[in-house]
Amino acid sequence: MKTHHILTSAVLLFMTSNLAYAEQNQLDGQWYFQGSIGYSVVDMDNMLDEKSYDVNNDDISYELAVGYLFTDYVGVKIGWRELGKGSYKSSSTSTRYFHSEQEFSSLFIAMTGHYPIAEHFELVGSAGFSRLTQSRTANIYDNGSLTSTETPDDYDFTEPYFSLGVEYSFNRNITIISEFIHQPMTEIASANTYQLGIKYKF
Questions:
Q1: Residue 187 in contact with residue 157, Cβ under 8 Å?
Q2: From CA 69, how far away is CA 194, in angstroms rounded?
Q3: 163 with 130: CB under 8 angstroms?
Q4: Secondary structure of 141-181 in the HEC alphabet?
């Protein structure tokens, strides 16, 4: 069984079990807003032969999300995530080469889990699905001059994702979160994101 199929099944199981748990442990709910910034690495190793290309695959990432806590332990969130850009250039010694740039963004929904590990600290995780958009631009150069540009249509696809992190609560309303996010992008690429954010609970 392929890795992304296994991950999809695990995400579905996680979401179903946590929804059942939330229904059995109803507390007064709480809304929150989250904004994060981080560092993303787009792994294109399965798509490119590194001996034939010069690869630049790290960039700044951003996230904006709205969430709802059913209980102290279970919640859900929906949001937008900019995963940054990945680019590669043919490393031929000839004067003619091409440079391709790909930008990835996503709309996502996920179940979240929260577990206290110390005063003010919580272990947090999420599992859900992303609707990803891949934007591509390909430039062809000859003798150092741009000769043509191709901009194919955006490519949209859906993949599961998961995250794991730690939260620190300053008070009932303001929380700092540090997390790692793994986002598969078909079978040929993936993105690993490390981000720091702030939550405001209403």
A1: no
A2: 23
A3: no
A4: EECCEEEEEECCCCEEEEEEEEEEEEEEECCCCEEEEEEEE
CB-based contact 131:156 (threshold 8 Å)? yes
Q: Residue 13 burial by CB count (10 A; 0-12/13-18/19+): exposed, middle or buried?
A: exposed
Number of Cβ within 10 Å of residue 8's Cβ equals 16
Two tokens, residue 149: 């540009």
Structure confidence at residue 127 (pLDDT): 94
> What DSSP assignment string belongs to 50-110?
TTTEEEE-EEEEEEEEEEEESSSSEEEEEEEEEEEEEEEEE--SSSEEEEEEEEEEEEEEE
- In Å, how far are 37, 49, 57, 136, 144 from 53, measured between CA atoms? 29, 7, 12, 17, 17
- 76, 111 Cβ separation under 8 angstroms: yes
Mean pLDDT by 10 residues, the chain (202 residues): 55 53 59 96 63 69 96 93 80 68 91 92 94 86 77 86 95 95 82 95 91
